[in-house]
Specification:
Structural class: alpha/beta
CATH class of the largest domain: Alpha Beta
Number of domains: 2
CATH superfamily of the largest domain: NAD(P)-binding Rossmann-like Domain
Largest sheet: 6 strands, parallel
Number of helices: 11
């Protein structure tokens, strides 16, 4: 297939390079000149592909609308695939705005340090399909990975990504709260975390063995904010989410 990657950050590069390794024709596009130079030096194609089969949007959420508008004037028949983490309803809204264009949601769950490896070795894929035809097209693209593929609505796919990152943030803040208590009691919180996960698969090692400082990075803080905003706009109580954020904010600088 011919694939256009819009946004060549961590997610965009992992996605595009992975598809290229599988034999697809891939073009990258990004406004960052250093990113362009690096990709060209690596032997990758950079620019605007003519008549791509799919356009993957891997841009920050606040740049998605602009990217969708710009690319709405190009490749009218291409399937648009949103990899960005966005509020539920985004794919549907864009499809309603740009009549005749098709938007699917295909959230990623890649960690920055090992994104390329995890793209090629995933536990599975989530396809938020706008229709069966385009869901079939995405399933065909991912079939060679021989991993489970779950097809659902775009809204379910979009909320799933936010829910996962909100839950990861919750685990870190919970165990950082335990650390505050453990420190007062002269107890090693990491030993507590290790024992809590020993022989009990109900307790995740994430947070239990990876705590001691505030969570940061490009994903958890912004996605937690997205969840809080989403709850606020829909008049849903979000006390737990606020506490997760408050604990994290208070732990900034903890070593």
């Amino acid at each position: 297939m011919k694939i256009q990657i819009v946004g060549a950050g961590v997610v965009g590069q992992a996605t595009g390079k992975g598809f290229a390794r599988l034999g697809h024709k891939v073009y990258f596009w990004d406004v960052n000149k250093e990113v362009e130079d690096g990709l060209r030096r690596g032997g990758y194609s950079f620019g605007r592909m003519e008549y791509p089969d799919m356009i993957f949007f891997c841009v920050p959420e606040d740049m998605l609308e602009e990217a969708a508008r710009e690319w709405s004037m190009r490749a009218a028949v291409a399937l648009r695939v949103i990899r960005s983490t966005v509020p539920p309803g985004t794919a549907h809204e864009l499809q309603s705005r740009y009549h005749g264009q098709h938007f699917c949601s295909n959230p990623e769950f890649l960690r920055e340090a090992v994104a390329e490896y995890e793209f090629l070795n995933p536990p599975g894929f989530i396809i938020g399909e706008c229709c069966k035809e385009h869901g079939d097209l995405l399933e065909k693209l991912y079939a060679p990975f021989r991993r489970p593929i779950h097809r659902t609505s775009p809204e379910v796919a979009e909320l799933t990504k936010l829910a996962v990152n909100g839950y990861l943030a919750c685990q870190v803040s919970y165990w950082n709260q335990i650390k505050l208590l453990a420190d007062k009691l002269g107890i090693n919180s990491h030993e507590v975390g290790m024992l809590a996960t020993f022989g009990d698969d109900r307790v995740s090692v994430y947070g239990a063995r990876m705590h001691g400082k505030a969570f940061g990075g490009k994903c958890l803080p912004k996605d937690l904010r997205q969840l809080i905003t989403l709850c606020y706009r829909n008049t849903v109580q979000y006390t737990l989410l606020e506490v997760i954020r408050e604990i994290n904010d208070n732990l900034e600088g903890v070593k």
